[in-house]
Amino acid sequence: MQNQALKVTAEELAPVLQFIFQQSLDPGDVPLDCRKANITPLFKKGSTTNPANYRPVSLTSTCCKLLEHLIDSNRMRHQQDGYKSTRKFGAAAATTVNGRCGQFYTSSKVQDTIMLEAGVFPTALSEEQLAAATEKSLQNLFGSSKIFSLDTIEKRNYVMSDIINDRAKEHYDRGKILLSRGLLEEAVISFNKALALDPQQGQYLFEVNMYGEALEIFALASELRPANQHYHMRSIATLLALGRLEDCLQYVTKQLEVVTSNPELYILRARLHDHFSNVVSCYQDVSHALTMDPSHQEAVSLMQTLVQRAEEAKAGAVNKALQGNMNGALYCINQAIDNNPIELGYYIFRGTVFRRLKNFNAAIDDYLHVLNEVNNMKQSETYLETQRQLLLTYNDFAVHCYHKGFYEEAILLLNQSIKEEKQEKGLYINRGDCFLRQCHLDFALLDYEQAQELDPDDWRIQIRIAAINNEKGLLDHHNRKYQQAEKRFTTAIEGNPYMSQYYLHRAKTREVLMQVTGSQEDAVTSLLLDIRNKQIIPLLTHLFPGKSMDEIMASKVVECARSKLNASLQTAAPLIPRVFQQSLTDSSFKSTERPGMLTQKRT
To answer: 233 and 97, same structural domain?
Structure first.
């Protein structure tokens, strides 16, 4: 018979079904039709042509299921009371049929076993295996936590009078009716009476796996008696049994707003956070639990798990960084920090990754975080290493700003670096380059000279100082301070005798000072260093009137100039590498046209 027909004719069929059920229960014999089941394959996933992708489902008659439900729901309640004539047929039959009702389940299991042995459903699981798998999943989720232990719960009273139980149900039903009508005060009174008569009603439903009805009872009880933690804990346990983990997490969070001294609740929420991959919140809850109880086994175990995950993620980050996959390394080190945010070494490593990815602001934030944590241990290895990495980041950030044309920002970053480390010449060189780009020649010269004091033999500093003296000599020449300009050009040539333009500039200045021989020698020397420099030809024609280039090159002035030049180059050769001697600096008259000389000098 179809379920819809049973539903429509429920009142008419009830007496008939009662008679049939009673006839079956009195002799203790289950009808043959109830022992049979149609096993239908239910598709799970994958290919529909593969029998392994189906699981068996036993379909029995709805009327037989009704009889089974009546027996099962009344068996536990009456099996210790014995038979009483005042009981209804379902309750009285529970004892007499208890020995025979197993036939119903046995028949179904035998048929399922036959089908499994036939190989039709090789992947099917028994009810015991499913129950064990569910228990194992809960064990993995909550460990050995005793938060739902029922040791303190009042044991079920099997000798409680049926009258009291029925009366409690009447109060409960009446409360629901009053609540639907909006009579809140009367509804609360009825619910309280029901709880007073049968406080373990929800637990009974929970024990027979009627979780939805049990949750309704526990939720109502917790609202009526919010101070009773037993009802709250049972509500959480019921939500877990229903698989409503998100609702369970919200409920636990709400409970922790009221009860803040229970480490078990923090561990429960930590495991829920971990289940939803919210590792940061998981760590925070575990830390709270350990603060309240440092010896809490569940908290210690979960913390060890988080620390182990962090180490594994750090190892993965190192491997990816060595392979050049900096984005992958950043992802792994972020996972490590989420699992163990108090390990400062992770922040140092992440700062290095950020620096290589040119995310300098994030790198600086990580280093400052570490320095703030170890501020009282300034001589520790962690502090010194972090300080060194921070200076490198400031310098690299300044170099990045320099190449982008943000000279002012680069100077601010270098100022911060020099404030922390005054003995690093590279910082002064880089700041001097930024000042040179801004045409602040005096500031640039001061920085270069400071760097030269730290390392007098560094040729990079020497050629920079020469370039500054050349620029200042040009300004003095323009302002008609010819004597001072001649000294500036001479200093520049001494610092870098390979630059043709320096000799050309001094030649023009000496021409104004009426130093004809010196001007001729400088002009010829400039030509010897750079025969492609077309600016020298007009000056040579003016200094050697009436002579051709061949005559000029055959004169004694050229021999004298060549001799002096060779002596200067031999003196400078040990200081300046040959590879840089012909490609040091552009010789334009305008400093703003000079190419950058900034170098990433690392400490």
So the answer is: no
299-355, pLDDT tens digit by residue? Answer: 999 999 999 999 999 999 999 999 999 999 999 999 999 999 999 999 999 999 999
Final residue of a structural domain among 288, 322, 344: 288
* 229, containing H or E segment: helix 229-241
State residue 58 phi and psi, 5-degree precision: -90, 120
> What residues form DSSP beta bridges with 54?
43
- With residues binned 3-state (H G I as helix, E B as strand, rest as coil), the percentages for the chain, rounded to 5, are 70, 0, 30
**Residue 553: which domain range?**
423-593
CB atoms within 10 A of CB 110: 11
Q: Which of 107, 126, 145 is the last residue of a domain?
A: 126
C-alpha 96, offset from chain centre: 62
Tens-place pLDDT, residues 523-556: 999 888 888 888 888 888 888 888 888 888 888 8
**Does residue 277 lie in a domain region?**
yes
**Number of domain units in the chain:** 3
Q: Give every CB contact of residue 566 below 8 A, 6+ residues apart in sequence.
A: none
Burial of 146 (0-12, 13-18, 19+ CB in 10 A): exposed
Residue with tokens 């390392």, as numbered in its chain: 455
Domain presence at residue 531 = yes
Are 523 and 536 spatial neighbours (Cβ–Cβ below 8 Å)?
yes
With respect to residue 542, please indicate whether it lies within any of the assigned structural domains. yes
